[in-house]
UniProtKB/TrEMBL annotation:
Record domain Plastocyanin-like: where: 56-165, 376-485
Organism, as annotated: Pseudohoeflea coraliihabitans
Protein name, UniProt field: Multicopper oxidase domain-containing protein
Keywords: Metal-binding, Oxidoreductase
Signal peptide: none
InterPro entries: Cu-oxidase-like_N, Cu-oxidase_C, Cu-oxidase_fam, Cu_oxidase_Cu_BS
Length: 486
């Protein structure tokens, strides 16, 4: 038997249905969708975020031990404006170290909050982020090496919105929490007593940890009340490993208006939308007929490489309930007509590429796979090397455009690059239409992809930028590299 098929067979044997990601057949829609409080972050001082421990009742009458930013679970939505400096203090009231990573923001390495920028227990750091990039939906989360999965899963994550005069917000729903609604989607698993369950060894490390319940803004399968008209949802997949393919149960179409890094050139009509971990999308949904709808997701199985797993899939089941949307908000909708195009769209502007780099996301790393089969933590890597905080993997020049070719081992991986936004050129050898994808900072690697990338800010060896798989258990097990920009 060849080594590859032996390992694939062994993975299949320990991936029997029921171990990971099994979905309840009949979830009951819970309470009202919570809306994270909005924090305007500008040049004035006084804004702060503290990582704290809390308790949170996902399940009525049961308390889960959670983490949050200045609240029991998750954090406030930070709103920043292009052309301004965003000042805030980050405090760590936990016993373990954290970082504050600004996912998608174009800031220098020393402000990026990567694994080198640890905030020790009891300490504060001051941040001044010069915001200069188009409007969009971003997020922030802790990023210490080896513990990102655990901390994000328990709640050290929040949304970050950038506003920009050039983005034509007047034609888009923009009343926060009314017709412009944030949806932080995470899957959770619970113990019998309602506490959060988490595992980053063995099978969970290989497939990525997946829960069987869907939390939106920290509430399980909640209900959102929306005005009768066009409603904008800002979707963030803040799950550790789960991929969603979202659609409405009544089959209604909707328009995607933004992806990871900002507005698309024009709305794209869709009936479903795939969101891999860390990806964002903004959609406009028409509720003018007053009918309620359920946002559901396919229970996307872990996608193994074609042929290796027979059907190429494992796991999977019936649809997951995400959110029920009921028409009848307390305020009227502000927008009734779909815009035809966006003046504030984030268009790609790149020079001629001067270099090509290749990145192979590896799961086959010596004895690592064997360790995982016995419940331990595997070792993953990129280009044959597991992440090492003391090693700089790539050195880039500021302002130079490059083509990065990323390919995947064994299963599909969401590849994230810090410090910039990029254009996806090809996926699996097929060219990608920019109008459909827009500017990105996460790209889904089934087999391979090519991206066009450039960095306009510096990153030194003391605080380099990261590239990594955003399946957090893969990242924590070494599927990450780091680079400088000078
Ligand atoms: Cu991965």
């Amino acid at each position: 038997m060849k080594r590859r098929s032996f390992i694939a067979g062994s993975m299949a044997a320990i991936a029997a249905p029921g171990l990971v990601g099994r979905v309840r057949a009949q979830p009951v829609f819970g309470g009202q969708l919570p809306i994270p409080p909005l924090m305007e972050v500008g040049e004035e001082s006084g804004n702060r975020l503290d990582a704290i421990e809390g308790t949170h009742a996902f399940i009525e009458g049961e308390q889960a031990q959670t983490l949050g930013w200045s609240q029991d679970h998750l954090g406030p939505t930070l709103r920043m404006r292009r052309g301004r400096t965003a000042r805030l203090t980050i405090g760590n009231r936990l016993e373990s170290e954290i970082t504050s990573h600004w996912h998608g923001l174009h800031v220098p390495g020393w402000l990026d909050g990567g694994p080198q920028s640890l905030i020790a227990s009891g300490r504060n750091i001051e941040q001044a982020l010069d915001i200069d990039q188009p409007a969009g939906t971003f997020w922030y989360h802790s990023h210490p090496h080896g513990r990102t999965g655990d901390q994000v899963y328990r709640g050290l994550a929040g949304l970050l919105l950038i506003e920009d005069d050039r983005a034509d917000t007047s034609v888009l729903p923009s009343a926060y929490g009314v017709d412009d609604i944030p949806l932080i989607i995470q899957d959770k698993a619970f113990t019998r007593r309602g506490n959060l369950q988490y595992d980053d060894g063995g099978m969970a490390a290989m497939q990525g940890f997946r829960g069987d319940r869907i939390a939106v803004n920290g509430a399980l399968e909640p209900v959102a009340h929306v005005p009768q008209g066009l409603v904008r949802f800002r979707l963030l997949n803040a799950s550790n490993a789960r991929v969603y393919v979202l659609s409405f149960d009544d089959g209604r179409r909707f328009h995607q208006i933004a992806s990871d890094a900002g507005l698309l050139p024009a709305p794209v009509s869709r009936s479903q939308l795939q969101l891999a971990p860390a990806e964002r999308a903004e959609i406009l949904v028409d509720f003018s007929n007053g009918a309620e709808a359920r946002l559901v997701s396919q229970d996307v199985p872990v996608q193994m490489m074609g042929g290796m797993m027979g059907g190429g899939m494992m796991g999977g089941g019936s649809d997951l309930e995400v959110l029920k949307v009921v028409v009848g908000g307390s305020r009227p909708a502000t927008v009734s007509e779909l815009p035809q195009e966006f003046s504030g769209a984030y268009l790609p502007v790149f020079g001629e590429p001067v270099r090509r780099r290749e990145f192979r996301l590896n799961m086959m790393m010596g004895m690592g796979m064997m360790r995982a089969m016995f419940g331990g933590r595997p070792t993953f890597g990129i280009n044959g090397q597991a992440y090492d905080m003391g090693r700089i993997d790539q050195q880039l020049r500021r302002g130079e455009t490059e083509i990065w070719e990323i390919s995947a081992d064994m299963m599909s991986h969401p590849f994230h690059v810090h410090g910039t936004s990029f254009q996806v050129l090809t996926q699996n050898g097929i060219s990608v239409d920019f109008a459909e994808t827009g500017m990105k900072d996460v790209v889904w690697i089934e087999n391979s992809a090519e991206i066009l990338v450039r960095f306009d800010h510096p990153a030194t060896p003391e605080a380099p930028y990261m590239y990594h798989c955003h399946i957090l258990e893969h990242e924590d097990s070494g599927m990450m590299g780091q680079f400088t920009v000078s």
